[in-house]
Amino acid sequence: MVFFVLGAASLVASDDAVDVDLPVESEAPPPPAEPVVAGDRGVQVVVPDGAFCGRLEAREGDDVRVLVADGCPDRVALSHDGDRVAFVSGVTGIASVYLVPFAGGDPVQLTNVGLEDAPITVGRPPAGFVPPPHGGAPWFDGDVLRWIGPDGPHEVALP
After folding, report:
1. Read out DSSP for 90-132?
2. Which pTM does this prediction carry?
3. pLDDT tens digits, 48-57
């Protein structure tokens, strides 16, 4: 099994290694993501000019505030009631799923807690690694957050 790093915080598994010439564009940030909206509330990853990655902003009417300023947050989801925001971040060095209140506060790491200090074997993720969403954002489903990883579906109970 071969693992590839995609973007700032993804790990993708493949059974077959292939030679691929990928352009490296480290000077150009990714385009800003479309806002995710629930009612009059919205969240969006905003990439400032010249920045490598963005920050997670919350918008409600004319009020705009930063929810997460570091860790290259991406793959953002907003709960149906607009009260919770899920996102992927690599702030610990391991791509993980986080949850933060829309009103603000400290993000809570939902997956891969403590793995930043786990021994890593070349070509393999640390034991207990839960892949983040691949190709899309997670979604809220009642008291569970669900997503599709490169190895299939995943879910975690919401605190």
Report:
1. -TTSS-EEEEEETT----EE-SSTTGGGS---TTSPPTT--PP
2. 0.77
3. 888 888 999 9
